[in-house]
Structure formats: C-alpha cells, structure tokens
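Appendix B, Record 12. Input sequence as logged:
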Amino acid sequence: MMNDDSKSSGNRAVGADSLSSLALAFVGDAVFNLFVRTMLVGSGKKVRDLHREAIKFVKASAQADILRKIDAYLTDAEKNIVRIARNAKVNTVPKNADIMDYHYSTGFEALLGYLYLTGQNERLNRILMASFNLVSPSISDTGGQISD
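Logged structural output:
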C-alpha cells in the first residue's frame, strides 16, 4: 500500500510529533480508508457494494475490535500513542457508535497516522494487512498476525 522508498517516506510535510493525537487520527482515518478501498476495488463488485463492504472495515466498532486484537503486537511506543489518542477529549461521537468503541477507533487511527507521517511504512503495511485480514480473512491469509 505505502511506498517503501526511504527517500520519499522521510519527506512528509508535517512532523508527527508536533500534531495532536486527534490530528494523527485524522490522517490515520484517510490512510485506512484508502488502504481498504484499494484492497476492495479489485474484487469486481459494483461501487455500491464496494462502499457497503468498506463500511465493515472503517466503522468505529470494527476498528476498536482490530485494536483490541493487535494490542499484544504493538510496541510500547505504539501503545502510548494509542493510549493518548484514546483518552483525547472529543467533542462529537457519531450517532451509530458506542463511545468506548469510538475512543478505541480514534486510538487505532492515530497509530496509523503516526506510522504514516513518520515514514514507518513497513510497520504500517504489516498493521494494515493484519487489520484487513481480521475483518475479512478470506481475502488475505495472514490470520491477523503482525510478524516481524
């Protein structure tokens, strides 16, 4: 999904350390949406069906479930990013989302945003593939494992 070229990965316009956890989640949301849509588009389904399938991945409850399942594979630094984002004060919660799931999904998205902005593309790809497989095991065969 992401370019592994170290020259391009180090040239992000904004430093991740200068952003709030909610700003990291904003970027991570876009990263995850693009990844999911890219994975699904080759299925040959109609756009309407692709959209419905994508929702299964990007809804707060799915992302919260993913985060809970991959937590054991995260480094201490990654867990810290997730914790800070999970505890961030949010002003709104989508009407169809449980508040706890929403906080966990914010943590998941912040992690993805951080990895993307810091150019940790190999790690980002591992987490994205494992996450995708946890929601749709038939498309990938990694079993949701994040291996080194």
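The domain at 18-135 is CATH 1.10.1520.10 (Ribonuclease iii, N-terminal Endonuclease Domain; Chain A).
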